[in-house]
Amino acid sequence: MLPPAASFLPEITFQTSRASGPGGQNVNKVESRVELRWHLMDSQVLTDEQKRLILEKLTNQLTAEGLLLLAAQDDRSQFRNKEIVLARFHELLLKSLRRPKPRKATKPSKSAVRKRLEGKKLQGEKKANRRKLD
């Protein structure tokens, strides 16, 4: 089970910058974009097994040093962007720790096989009846 997002806060660093895109004067003078940085292998909150699972699932999203970088610039408010990026971080960790349900191989039932073969036989007879007689 994953601990609450608040327990990760001492391990997370935030960096702010000016957001890109439309927004007029506000975008040009306010640093509302928030970037979250978290080092997976230095985490004290997660077990080694959880770290291994996250490393396996998020390989493409981690830097060579094992840093996870997430950014949010959805809102005009820096505080709101910080909340958004924290929610994304927590959701990403939850998703990466979720184990898929094992697939159980099944066979079609005898009646399903019988129905399929009967349908094929009927279709074949239908086509055979359309042929020209010699």
Automatic annotation (TrEMBL):
Basic residues bias spans: 98-114
Pfam families assigned to the protein according to its UniProt record, in alphabetical order: RF-1
Gene Ontology MF term list: hydrolase activity
Keyword presence, Hydrolase: yes
InterPro entries to which the protein is assigned, alphabetical: Pep_chain_release_fac_I
Keywords of this entry: Hydrolase
Positions of region (Disordered): 98-134
PANTHER family the UniProt entry points to: PEPTIDYL-TRNA HYDROLASE ARFB
Protein name: Alternative ribosome rescue aminoacyl-tRNA hydrolase ArfB
Gene: arfB
